[in-house]
Amino acid sequence: VVTSARQHLPERTDRELITAAREGDAEAFGLLVRRHQRRVYRLAVHLLKSGAEAEDVTQDTFVRAYGALDRFDGRSEPFTWIYRICVNLSLNALRSRKTRRASSPDDPRIEGLLIDTHPAGGSPARSSADKQLGRALVDGIDELSDTLRTTLVLVCIDGLSHAEAGEILGCPEGTIAWRVHEARKKLRGMLSERGFDSDDIEGKE
Amino acid sequence: MTGTGLKLPRGADELLREFPLKEPDFEAQAQAIEARLQAPLAAPLGDLLAVPDLSAEPGEPVRAAASATGSLTELARRSLHQPTDDSTALVKELLAVTSQARRPDAEMVARVRAAGKTGGATPLPSGATPLPLGERPSGVVARVGVAAAAPPPEPRPAKRGLMWGGLAGALALAAAAVLFFRPAAHEAPSSAARLEPAVATVAPQPPEPARAPAVVTKAQNDGVLSPEALAMAPEPKSHEVGGNGAKPAAPLAAASPAKARPMSGGVPAPEPAHADAEPKSASAATPVEPPLEPAMKPAQGSTDSLPLSPSGGAVSTALGAVRSQAQACLAGQNGAVTAVVTFSSDGHVTGVSAGGPSGACIQAALSKARLSPFARDQFRATTTIRPP
Questions:
Q1: Is B335 exposed, middle or buried (0-12, 13-18, 19+ CB in 10 A)?
Q2: Mean pLDDT of B193-219
Q3: Does residue B73 register a pLDDT over 60?
Q4: Nearest to B222 by CA among B271, B269, B264
Q5: Cβ-based burial of A174 (10 A; exposed 0-12, middle 13-18, buried ≥19)
Q6: Is B50 a residue whose pLDDT tops 90?
């Protein structure tokens, strides 16, 4: 379950950690890294479709952020500031690729689907259906444009609000809402082409 | 998370939120990051803090700037759908909005105070200069003229009751103030000038016609005919012209340079009783019954023998005579062009509004249309030119 690390470490807020890190407290920045690295990694994975590249981008994100602590003006939340760096690094990595590849051999999403995450006793049929749906979702997400995919990942996968996603991507909430709707519409169409309708999913259960 | 709207197949949203990923050893990664932080940072941040360079999707909404223009446009649009007999009220409504949009500036306030009046006057836009005394109008405006030409906001005549009786000097100052503001009203560009071209039409006023467009009212909308809609209309009968039809607003019409400029002329008088006509929606493909003929009524107080307005049939004939030339302008094109043709009271075309790359050609062709003289100061007709 993706939950914010901030909920587990409520002692110091992100802003307090940033302030402390600015004053030379390396441990404070380490806490910030541990608080957000999982979400940053998941964001990078869905954008890059590669585990190795996502790890690199995750590391780079925090290293670059650390180097730019004095440029954090406090107008936005620290995590949106970090996310924006991650999105920019991911887009740079995507555009530096010579060819656009559909999937990577080390795509953590595919590898994750291969692991049975359901508890023992769960329906094997349901698990199989979920894996098929997961694979279709991965393919559908990858078919989206960078713009729609980034927005969808931030909102529907990472669970950010439209306002937060708008702050990261620098566009109004209305635009985010439109993109989410458009991405979901396309995603639904792609899933439908693969036979994943609501009735089908229920029928497989 | 905010609402996601469109429904995905069952289980998809849950899977998206809890997508199973093969995750690395995050603690080891965090330690690696901390180790990198100890080393000098070689890579600059660059533009990584900038807004991500994501191209807009096709059809992505663009923020529209809300402005007073928008509200005026909406107001004008609504006015086109008001009942005909509300035209006067609509004019007043629009003029009220326009006048409220003005803001007095320091210069104007100072000039008003210097003139002995401390408030309550229509603000004078900066840069406005009064006419010489001999050319100043009296301030009395014929109601028919106002209804026919619908000028921008006119100042009220001097309320002499406000002047203290017996103080001749104060009376003179008040009169001077009123006359001082009158030309300002002519020169002040109406807020309605910012209306969208499809909604607003141009009605210049004598001092500066090009800068004083008037607003569109239902009455004017009714004066806009679609010849296509009237294509089946019979020729006008003699009874359509009232025996007492006269040119309204004689002083304004006499001073109007409408015939010398394209797209000029005052807003026509309210032309009642053909509310069932829908000139905007009518087209050549869907001819409708002539809506105007039974609706023609003489203008209030008119005395001339000329028809108040040209009949629908006459307009259709006049434009039909030049239609083929206009259609030739669209040879090889696909889209139709809607043109608004303005006739002066002598039947000549004073202005043609047509957009698109062939607009100038269409304007030249439609300018040759001729109508019989009519009483109104001008008459406007809308026609759609389709490729041959």
A1: exposed
A2: 37
A3: no
A4: B271
A5: middle
A6: no
Helix (H, G, I), strand (E, B) or coil at B344: strand
Question: Bridge-partner residues for B384, per DSSP?
Answer: B338
pTM over 0.90: no
Query: Between chains, do A84 and B56 touch, taking CB under 8 Å as contact?
Result: no
Q: Which amino acid is at B89?
A: A
Please judge whether A45 and B21 are an interchain contact, meaning their C-beta atoms are less than 8 angstroms apart: yes
Contact in structure between B10 and A14 (CB atoms under 8 Å)? no
B219 and B84 Cβ atoms separated by less than 8 Å? yes
For residues B274 and B147, what is the distance between their CA atoms, to the nearest angstrom?
Answer: 18
CA distance B198 to chain A (A): 28
Q: Which of A167-176, B153-162, B358-367, B379-388 has the lowest mean pLDDT?
A: B153-162
Q: Count CB neighbours of A111 within 10 A.
A: 15
Which positions ≥6 away from B217 have C-beta within 8 Å? B79, B87, B90, B91, B94, B150, B267, B270
Please enumerate in sequence order all residues whose Cβ is within 8 A of that of B210, keeping only pairs 6 or more positions apart, or say none: B204, B261
The answer to whether B260 faces chain A, any CB pair under 8 Å, is no
The predicted pLDDT at position B109 comes to: 52
Q: Which two tokens stand for residue A63?
A: 């290293």
- Give CA–CA dist A187/B160, Å, rounded: 74
CA distance B28 to chain A (A): 10
CA B14, CA A159: separation in Å to the nearest integer?
Answer: 11
Q: Which residue has the higher pLDDT, A168 or B90?
A: A168
Q: Which residues of chain A have pLDDT under 50?
A: 1-6, 9, 200-205
What span, in angstroms and rounded, lies between the C-alpha atoms of B5 and B22?
Answer: 29
pLDDT, tens digit, 9 for 90 and up, residues B319-328:
888 888 888 8
- What sign has the CA pseudo-torsion B42, A22, B33, A109? negative
Q: Do A113 and B9 touch (CB under 8 A)?
A: no
pLDDT tens column, B242-284: 334 333 333 333 333 333 333 333 333 333 333 333 333 333 3
* Residue of A80, A107, A127, A182 best to disrupt the B interface, most CBs of B under 10 A: A182
Tell me if A115 and B10 make a contact (CB, 8 A cut-off).
no
For chain B, say whether A198 makes contact (Cβ under 8 Å).
yes
What is this model's ipTM?
0.75
Query: Cα–Cα distance between B273 and B266 in angstroms, integer?
Result: 21
